[in-house]
From TrEMBL:
PANTHER family: DIHYDROANTICAPSIN 7-DEHYDROGENASE (PTHR43477:SF1). Keywords: Oxidoreductase. The keyword Cytoplasm does not apply. The keyword Oxidoreductase applies. This is SDR family oxidoreductase.
Length: 257
């Protein structure tokens, strides 16, 4: 690796699986000191062991419920104590529930807001004074193309609303953080292969193939590294004059609607 993140302290949420594992590995390989967390304690421990075996510097905390403000603050404060500061906050963690609007239980709506939007606010709020004290840093929030379009193949009303909120919050962070050297950007992935989607993508239903996969101009679904590549750029000094962007990573699929 090129050492694009040498010396940076990067806090990454949701490192126990999927894109979080890829993020932890890549950030460490690029020279960052990583502090990760996940609600899944076993998954968090596996990622920590993997990154250390690859020569990376990482500390991971398991059993962290970021949807609870006090827990999010405790993790951020512990992360700062581990390496002495924050340069990057990468809000990757996300959990959602889907159902048509007339069938979605209020509890599932609340669950999705808590675990896709609230947790971003809580971690940012906890990290903000540390970023200000350090004279700046990079906040990377994971959105979704679900926030910028409605679709007929998935009942994503709660998910799209939460991710729309992530984008809106990020824009305000840009304005409030600019005078302190804090940058904030969003990465909005399209359909990416993760442990949750791998089985479906291995043998996609005809409707999924016809209305999603066959309409990706670059001809393939995404991989975790496609998203992490964008995150490395936004975390690095290469993007030092970029704040407020919503970087869509979807193979061009959202262009077709």
């Amino acid at each position: 690796m090129s050492g694009r993140l040498d010396g940076k302290i990067a806090l990454i949420t949701g490192v126990g699986g999927g894109m979080g594992i890829a993020a932890a590995r890549r950030f460490a390989a690029e020279g960052a000191r990583v502090v990760g967390c996940d609600l899944d304690a076993a998954g968090a421990a596996r990622t920590e062991q993997l990154v250390r075996a690859e020569g990376g510097e990482i500390a991971v905390m398991g059993g962290v419920d970021l949807g609870d403000a006090a827990s999010a603050r405790a993790w951020v404060d512990a992360a700062v104590a581990t390496y002495g500061g924050i340069d990057v906050l990468y809000n990757n963690a996300s959990t959602q529930r889907f159902a048509p609007i007339d069938e979605l239980p209020v509890e599932d709506w609340d669950f999705t807001m808590r675990n896709e939007l609230d947790l971003v606010f809580y971690t940012v709020k906890a990290a903000w004074p540390h970023l200000k004290a350090a004279g700046g840093g990079s906040i990377i929030n994971v959105g979704s193309i679900a926030a910028i379009r409605g679709v007929e193949f998935m009942a994503q009303n709660a998910h799209s609303t939460a991710k729309g909120g992530v984008i809106a919050l990020t824009l305000q962070l840009v304005v409030e953080g600019g005078p302190h050297g804090i940058r904030a950007n969003v990465i909005s992935p399209g359909l990416v292969e993760t442990p949750n989607t791998a089985r479906m993508l291995a043998d996609p239903p005809e409707r999924m193939r016809r209305v999603v996969l066959d309409r990706i101009p670059l001809g393939r679904h995404g991989q975790a590294d496609d998203v992490v590549n964008a995150a490395v750029f936004l975390a690095s000094d290469e993007s030092s004059w970029i704040s407020g962007t919503n970087l869509v990573v979807d193979g061009g699929g959202s262009v077709l609607g």
